[in-house]
Structures are given as C-alpha cells and as structure tokens.
Amino acid sequence: MLYRKIEHLITEHLQSDSKQILLIDGARQVGKTYIIRHVGQKLFENFIEINLIEDFLGDKLFSGIKNTEDFYLQLSMVAGDKMKEKKNSLVFLDEIQAYPHLLTLLKFLSQEAKFTYIASGSLLGVTLSQTTSIPMGSIRKERMFPLDFEEFLYANGMNEFAVSALRTKFQKLEELDEIMHNKLMDMFRKFLLVGGLPDAVNAYLDTHNIQRVRAIQHEIHNYYAVDASKYDEQNKLKIRRIYELIPSNMENKKKRVVAQQIENKKGKIFSDYQDEFEYLISAGIALNVQAISNPKFPLAETEGKNLLKLYLNDAGILSGILYGNNIRAVLDDVRSINLGSVYETVVASELIAHGYKLFYYDNRSKGEVDYLIDDYASLSAMPIEVKSGKDYAVHSALNTLVNNEDYHIQKAFVLSNERKIMHKGKIIYLPVYFVMFFQNQSISGEDTFL
Fold it and tell me: 200, 217 in Cβ contact below 8 A?
C-alpha cells in the first residue's frame, strides 16, 4: 500500500486519551477512507464503517437522528455485534458532510465516550460554517492532501534512509552529486506527469501506462467539477466555470483570477464570486494564493481581498490537461514548452500540504514574486520564486523585493532545475525537489531553514 504521512497522526490520535474526535477533511479521491480504514482495522478489534453518502442515497437510517440514543439504535441495526467497548470499538463516519447535524452530535458522542470515533468528509469548512451548533473543542480537524513528492518517492521504492540523507543535505544546504541529482529530477518530472492522486499513482506503479494514468486523472477532474458544483444548486454553473478556468489562467502571464472572465460580464468584481471561491477552496480541489500589498511579517495582516490565484490541487491533472499523453514534453524538458505553470502548481501543493498559507506579491511597477510565506524563525516574510527553464537567475522583481530594507526580508529562495546550491546576497538557489522539506515551523516546531 502507499505510504501516507498522515497515518502516523491518525494512529497517534486514536491511541491517545484525547476526548476530541478526529475529523479528516480533504478533497475526494485523496485516500481519506483508505488510510482511516487501514489504521482502524489494524488498531481495533471491532471496526465499524458507515458511509453516510451511501446512507443518504439509500436507506437514510441516520437522516432523522436527533440525539445519541437515536444514533446508537440506528448504529446497532447495521453493526450491533461490533458495538463493544471504547477501547476495542472504532466507529468511522465517512462522508459526514452528507448529514451536517451529525457534526453537532459529535460533541455529545464524545462526551458519552461509549466508543472511539473518527470521521472524514469533504467541504467540511463550508459545512461547519453552515452548522447551527459547531462542536468547538470536541473535534480536531486535519486536512489531507494528495501524495506529496516525498510520499511519491517512497511509492517508487526510495527508502527512509535515503530520504533522511536527502533531508540532511537540505538542512545543511549541501548539493547532491550529479547522479543523485539526475535521479531526483527524473522522479520529479514523473511526479509532474503522475501527480499525487492515489488511484493515478497506483495505476502508474502497476502499469507504467500514461494513457491509463491520464484516463484516471481526466475522470477525477470531471468528477471534481460535478461534485463541487452540486453543493450549491443556485451557483453551480459559476463554480464549475471558475474551476474549469484554472488551467487557462495558469497559462496567462499574471495567472490570477479575472472576475469579468467568469461570466464574460463587464463590471463584475472579485467579491461577486466570494462564495464560489470559498466552495472550491474548502472542497480541497483548488489551492488559493492570496495577493499581498505589503510583504511584511505576518503576511496575513496585509492580505489583499480582491486579488487571487487558484491552482489545481494536483499537478498530474494539470499536466494531463496541458500536454495529454505526450510525456516527452515534460520528461525531456523541451525548450519550446513552458512548464512554469506545472512547476508552480507542484510547489504550491507542496507548501500548502506542509502547513503554509500562501501569498504572492504583485506590484505594477516592480513586478511579481510567485510566493511569499511567513518565516517564524526570523519573523520575516520569505519570498519563493519558481523557475522551470534556464533563466533561473533572472528575477528582477525578487531582487527589488529583497533589497528593500523596509521589508526586513532575511532570505529568499529560487527553486529551479539547477543542481548547484548558491548564495547571492539574501537569495538562496535550490533544486526544486528540495521543496519537499519545507515545513511550517509554527506547526511542526522544526527549524527547517538553517
């Protein structure tokens, strides 16, 4: 099976004495059900799994539940023989967003503690915001993403010792030898093609057939568009239109969402589509990068509300849309093909999966910098520029930003295909694959920028 980092978090929580119920949020098809089932069946003698979407479309046993007594009664109808003690009985409520009232009930199930519980779902941010009584303090919500590059390396046979050695190289800012660098760049380019959706990764590992991989990505991409839009009947066409515009936006110079293009109506502004953006982001199928007007720590204090870039949650889906079955466009690093949008998508997905909130800086006279993140070690903003071609040393906007003493920027990174690690003033040049070791210190407590 595929190694997923979140397995450790789930295991640790279920084995703890925490009274909170773990709630795994994330887009469909990222592996939530599979990993929870894997851990649950391993740790608990009695594993009870209830798919609430299937129930909603079928018998609706859990639709009218008003209290814990009703819940236990309905649960006993499908799994009465497994309802033993808390220490050996796990109840897994899958796709809990189908019944928002059960989110409120989690508080009382937690308090009564008859069994151990875990839940998963998508669009939980939106569902919780629409829930009349949010069970604050009773749930622990964690987001799950597609496989990141490190997990992809494990899936392709790299062992923990090798990854640990790579991490040490990153922490010491030591470059790899030519052979290892080429191997990692080869794996990185394959990651651009395959992405991190478990079904696509498994298809690649089993068949190495790009047409099979692309068929899965195409199916999931279409499924995402339908799935996200069905949660808001009134605005579903606008939601789907925004989602389908993301790849073409990525090919534009500015890459940001242009409100007037969504419905091709003049006068439309960003705020007219705020709810639609929120749906796509909360569903986990779109990654948001917010504009920043003043690149100072903490970045959220000057977050711009009217400019936004959206990325697909998986680079494999994007490369499939852009290049189809032509793998040479990516693997051979063809000069005439601009891989910038796919590289940026990978970096965005890696950083967000590792706990960062992303911003970008765009000044009409000074240019644009791809990403800014908060660096908690130096209490300053940290710019990140992503380069897919040979011109990795050309970045006038980044130079202007780091040289402005008013911003107090301590360091910046340029991520590219180049093997050598170089320092030029405050700018550090790194191979792009090292983004897998960027980890938000405010979450991990680790100092990753030495």
Answer: yes
Claim: this prediction has a pTM higher than 0.85: yes
Q: Where are the beta strands (DSSP E) in 63-172?
A: 89-94, 116-121, 139-143
Q: What Rg, from alpha-carbon coordinates, does the chain have?
A: 23
Question: CA separation (Å) from 267 to 175, 258, 260?
Answer: 51, 11, 7
- The count of other CB atoms within 10 Å of the CB of residue 211 is 10
Question: Is the bond preceding 298 in cis, omega lying within 30 degrees of 0?
Answer: yes
DSSP 175: P
**What is the token pair recorded at 289?**
């990068």
Q: What is the chain's pLDDT, residue by residue, as a tens digit (450 residues)?
A: 899 999 999 999 999 999 999 999 999 999 999 999 999 999 999 999 999 999 999 999 999 999 999 999 999 999 999 999 999 999 999 999 999 899 989 999 999 999 999 999 987 766 766 666 666 688 899 999 999 999 999 999 999 999 999 999 999 999 999 999 999 999 999 999 999 999 999 999 999 999 999 999 999 999 998 876 666 666 778 888 999 999 988 877 778 888 888 988 888 888 889 888 988 998 899 999 999 988 999 998 877 667 889 999 999 999 999 999 999 889 987 776 789 999 999 999 999 999 999 999 988 778 889 999 999 989 999 999 999 988 899 999 999 999 999 999 999 999 999 999 999 999 999 999 999 999 997 654 444 444
